[in-house]
Design goal:
The chain has 153 residues and is an all-alpha fold. It is built from six helices and no strands. Keywords: Membrane, Transmembrane, Transmembrane helix.
Length: 153
């Protein structure tokens, strides 16, 4: 999306639209947030005295959090992309007398923003599950995995 968005003929219409926001959300999540979560997932158990890693139950919660965040972020991006395409079609492509104003366009885009809110709540639930995974204990009450534990347990 980045290469296409900055091509001069495309950028003329799309700059500052919801397409820019969609690109920013997905790029930041993929390039920075995922790397930071990877480092935290590795280092947090070690810093809490569990050099073997998190318990199997904690790993399950962490996976749920991961997928909720990914699904939520993709939903946010798709909602913003659809809103951006519709925004360009309503506000920037028509001739000057037929184009909608910024605020009139925002009224038309409300359903996309409601979808974005829903996916934002899914993302937030994923963040909560991700952080909760750091305090989940084994079924036996231990914070660290047993040497003989398997993922099937």
């Amino acid at each position: 999306m980045g290469v296409l968005a900055y091509a001069s003929p495309v950028n003329y219409y799309t700059h500052g639209s919801q397409l820019t926001a969609a690109h920013g959300h997905l790029a930041f999540f993929g390039a920075y947030a995922m790397v930071v979560m990877c480092m935290i997932s590795y280092s947090m158990p070690v810093m809490n005295g569990r050099p073997q890693g998190n318990s199997v139950q904690a790993q399950k919660v962490e996976r749920i959090g991961f997928w909720l965040m990914c699904i939520g972020m993709l939903g946010i991006t798709f909602a913003l992309t659809a809103a951006g395409i519709w925004q360009v079609a309503l506000q920037r492509i028509p001739e000057a007398g037929k184009a909608l104003s910024f605020m009139a366009t925002q009224e038309v885009l409300k359903p996309f923003y409601i979808a974005r809110l829903g996916f934002g709540l899914i993302f937030t639930a994923g963040v909560a599950a991700y952080f909760a995974s750091f305090v989940v204990a084994n079924k036996n009450g231990k914070q660290y995995p047993d040497a003989n534990a398997t993922l099937a347990e």
